[in-house]
Amino acid sequence: MFDTHCHINFNHYKNDADEVVARARDANVQMIVVGAQYSTSKRAVEVAHLYGEGVWAAVGLHPTHLFDMRYEGDSEDEGYDTRKEEFDYSAYKSLAKDEKTVAIGEMGVDYFHMPEGVDSVDVKLKQRELFIRGINLAQEVGKPLIVHTRPSTREARDAYDDTLSVLYDTGFANCVMHSFSGSKELARAFLNHGCMLSFTGVVTFKNAKDLQEVAKYVPLDRIMLETDAPYLTPDPYRGQRNEPAHVRYVANKIAELKGISTEEVIKITDKNAKAFFNLR
Ligand SMILES: [Zn+2]
Fold this sequence. Notes:
Largest sheet: 8 strands, parallel
Bound molecules: zinc ion
Shape: globular
């Protein structure tokens, strides 16, 4: 089974990454370790080499790292301060060309975490430019893109609409909408464009009825599983630090929603991940 998006390269695992990876291996879970800025992208590549089999990397600059700001996080995340980073295309390109790097990302747009004292029009424009640079890099190295999209509020679709607009304008579709949490209508738009959608532990939450309907709607051959660890911990571990081994709970929930076995979900989503990330 694949956890197609986790951050065991983050400080949250600095004391016990070995055990976290060992538990994933015991649970037969392979993983893509995703960077969010240059330091964590470089670390993702190092972690992939360190652990070797069943561990790969993705490298990119998350839109919230474009400005100096306080990242408040979700109710169950810890916040952190982020220093602004310019996207150094050639530095990311050398990480992107590494044999263990299987994708660019996570990159995209985030209107939930906006810096103070900067005009939101400018912020959105800069985020759009960065997103397009990520697409350019993905195209240049011939690897897929992991897209982060977060609207200004839970109900808003602003960031999704702008993501679609960039994808339409560039004609780029070799991407996965990571931790998808938009409506069924938006899911349809991304599917029609040719994107994959991935689901996290959020789908297991009791108050996530709308997202569960979306997961039921999306064809299994367009779905990938992820944890986004250390965040978005599934039930029954909600509130604790997440880890790749917990991706099984996402698989169980998708199986329950679709009325099929967990084995079937694992079989198809494994196939999807191998094809999407070009894993041998
Ligand atoms: Zn992430």
